[in-house]
What does this fold into?
Amino acid sequence: NVHDLRIDESILTGESVPVEKHHSQLTEDTVVADRGNMAYSGTLVTYGHAIGVVVGTGAKTEIGRINQMLSEVQTLETPLLREVDQLAKWLSLAVLVLASFTFAYGVWLQGMTGAETFLAAVGLAVAAIPEGLPAIMTITLAIGVQQMARHSAVIRRLPAVETLGSVSNICSDKTGTLTRNEMTVRSVVLADQLFEVTGSGYDPHGSFIRDGETKDSDNEPQLQELVRAVMLCNDASLSKKGTTKEETGSGAAGKEQWQLVGDPTEGALITLAMKAGLDPHFEQEEYPRTDIIPFESEHKYMATLHHDHAGHGVIYLKGAPERVLDMCQFQRCEAGTNQTIIDRNLWLQRMQSMASQGQRVLAIAAKAVPAEHMELNFSDLNEGLCLIGLVAMIDPPRDEAIAAVKQCHSAGIRVKMITGDHVDTAKAIGAQMNIGDGQTALTGAELEEMSDDELRKVVADVDVFARTSPEHKLRLVSALQANGNVVAMTGDGVNDAPALRRADVGIAMGINGTEVSKEAAEMVLADDNFATIARAVEEGRTVYDNLKKAILFILPTNAGEALSILAAILLGTMLPITPVQILWVNMITAVTLALALAFEPAEKNVMARPPRDPKAPLLSGFLIWRTLFVGMILVCGTFGLFLWYQSNGYSVEYARTIAVNTLVMFEIFYLFNSRFFIESVANKAGILGNRIALYAIAMLLVFQMLFTYTSPMQTLFATEAISFGDWLVIAVISSSVFVLVEIEKRVFRNKREAGENIRT
It folds into this structure.
């Protein structure tokens, strides 16, 4: 027994409007979104009532089945963790080989004692291992979390920050994420006129355009009659919620927020009438409602009876266009005239045209009645009805989401829409957002017939998927990953949870999302806005860049320290830097200089380049070259000054103090080089663009003064005070790294301009 039952199944299907239920029999292969004879646990009844039979409980319900899928989903390791693990293995192997070689060479070929050689090997290992790198990585990711939170993106798992930067495909839900989740009338069709309606959502500001010209609705009697009808034959209401500051840079502009109470479709109709200048309270007082036939699925329309203060009576009716068309004998061609016989073929063509664009169409009709007619019966609608016109509405795309999709495309990221909505609606929204070609879309039923291999081939070419179930979403994400993509998946319902967990980055909605989806996701959107994802991707790419810059800074400086010790062993001389001094340099520079790179702003081209290859190693050819190139510069300068001072009669402690300070000054100058991979820093942005770096340099210089001139530090690290002239020599020698690396960058830029692919 079903009596006009409508259920909100958005948590299971993503359907943007409540679904009408019936008791007709369906085939077993009907997808969940089309099972109109089933009511599911966890969904909400919005209207009507029914009596049904329980056919499944617990794990046999749809939610139970999804929970079972969720427990079986296998999550993937993030690209960063894979790359860091690979980097750690290579570095550990290299350090072990180099330290073993140093020990063997010192004992067997140089005749050094075992203890002395072991100390040198330990010093080399300490110098080569980047002890501060794990801390730098954690802090850089944490800074990314903080930056994303400021843009309404809440990170639940730290590695997801960087993973966002490597995303190549974003699978997005439609309703509320790409669209506003606010039905909006887009067009009004009269017998001989067509109006396009501007504006979006429930904000009653907009205009009516006919033949490319904006029209004054007050001078359009037919239009006025239609908007009055949809306002009076309506049970919803709009209220002004308040004003908020738009995100316009200055933050000065205010935007009215309108809140709907009632059905979204009726809210769109009230908004339409208010755009035409009608006031709801005035119209309801001027044409009070006398009686009503509420909407029911059996008759598919709603009718209301109104009498004005002069005694004139009128029936207004709105409903499914095919049903209303069958009830009407006339059509309105001029306000107040009901004499024109309806042209059914004309109206059917218009209905089909708007429906094919994914728009929801309603027909509006009216009938004049005598003043004494005070009750509304079904028999009153059997004859005399006049069709006023049609209204077509759709949940419109967010303007900022359209811009964000465009930005994603320019960044080499493909956006795919996966929704539970109807296929025509999905294609129409996709065309407006430049997702897909507006013609091609796959439904859940079509996905059911494909094997995994077939799906892998198809998913690379199709961007719009409609009427999908949880299994379909999970298969789509898995197919994209099997093709080598890093996938971000958005969702708000229980049905999205398995795909969210499987995706490289699961993104849940913070406002309308269920707790299940949030728990399965790595990131939560506090504003349910797709544009926030684009900003998060930009921040993720910046975080990865800054991590690479930190590595680009740490590895060459560590290589310089290690090669200095290796050079001393090979030449049979004393170590230029002791192991404890190396620990000091590594600790103090990691805390200050390397950490400063975590605060680097995004580079200009960060969203104008394709996603990085997730299989590419962190230790690229460019990074290996830069490590060796800078390491040799540091060896020549540091070890060279140590030998020069020692040969000129200075004590070993004095020469080592010179070497340590030279190494630190090398790192200070190289820090400026590290702010950009191959772009020049010879401008204000490069030298002064990161204030944190300047503060870090100042702090490091203070530490080095304490290291060089205070008695406790001299005792602990075996250092001696050096003269001002020595500092000048150190500054001149160490500045060479800045000049040489800038020359190297210029060579790489020339190669890039010549068309060579330079992968940093």
